[in-house]
Specification:
Layout (H helix, E strand, L loop, with lengths): L1 H27 L19 H49 L3 H25 L2 H35 L1
Helix pairs in contact: 1-2, 1-3, 2-3, 2-4, 3-4
């Protein structure tokens, strides 16, 4: 039962870390305002030329909005990636100092934040940034698994050989 409670607290901390970083990034760097669709002259007596002109203006506004949104997602990805590195490192440091539950929570939160960065990089439609985010996700997952599962077994094996 104690192991289950420890796991739940670690997952709670991880979720709180991801939420904190995600909400913080979008608070610091908010997205663009959604464009007003318009169609002021949409009536039965409006000419096709007038409607086409308004449609083209609305399409232009929509493309500008999408470009701004991609730029915002790209910048949020940078913020989230940097935060993921810091939080994962902090978690590994806490694990090393025997604060297991909090350290695991921070480490898992950092890995989950890397996953969030993959999503925002995909929304930004930025291939290099997406690759960087996936690389960070892979590296942080492997390092965390190594520190938590392989290193302790190696230390136990070394003590038994003495």
């Amino acid at each position: 039962m104690n192991a289950l409670i420890r796991l739940l607290y670690s997952l709670l901390i991880a979720g709180a870390v991801v939420a904190f970083i995600g909400v913080g990034a979008h608070t610091v760097y908010p997205g663009p305002e959604f464009p007003d669709p318009g169609f002021q002259s949409f009536s039965s007596n409006a000419s096709d030329e007038q409607l086409n002109k308004e449609q083209q203006e609305n399409d232009k506004k929509w493309r500008q909005f999408q470009d701004k949104q991609k730029e915002q997602n790209k910048n949020v990805t940078y913020i989230v990636l940097a935060s993921a590195v810091v939080v994962t490192g902090l978690g590994l440091l806490l694990i090393k100092r025997r604060s297991d539950v909090v350290g695991e929570g921070f480490s898992l939160g950092g890995v989950a934040t890397s996953l969030y960065a993959v999503i925002t990089a995909s929304m930004a439609d930025h291939d290099l940034l997406r690759f960087l985010a996936v690389t960070l996700l892979l590296v942080s997952s492997v390092v965390l698994a190594h520190k938590r599962f392989i290193e302790p077994q190696t230390k136990k094996s070394a003590k038994k050989k003495r």
